[in-house]
Amino acid sequence: NSTIDGIRAPFRFEGVIRQAVHQLKYRNLRILAGPLAELMKDYMARTPIPSDAVVAVPLHPRRLRERGYNQSALLAIELGKLTSMPVLPDSLIRQRHALPQAKTASVEERRANMSGAFVCRGQELKNRKVLLIDDVATSAATLEACAVALKDAGAASVWGLVVAREI
Which residues contact 50 (CB under 8 A, 6 or more apart)? Predict the structure, then answer.
């Protein structure tokens, strides 16, 4: 039984989309956040998702320092501009430094790795229909762990929207 209300992705994680996500995430090509967010917005126009606030999957502060930016936050900011939805940047925080999900093997390992990794601050998510943004969904364990924290904080619903999914 899943806490997240659903996960939507315009693309499969392959080909040119996979390359674009990798360029955004690992090669500092932040300029790609705009066009990728545009594709996400176009997808939402065809497949509406109940949402009134945008929240990005947060990075742990240590990973943020290493990379210098959070690619999911960049996507969320651009999508917020395109949809006129408020982006709530500091309400969901990562409180535990987990292994990179790409380094964990099974879905069970990924879930255990993410369990309790996120917590919400403040009341601004209460009764909100949250659109949770990440770049890629592999096992969905990260999105699920975020949804637990968001629902614990009173979010009415949590839908994940990612550029691409492997599942």
Answer: 5, 129, 157, 159
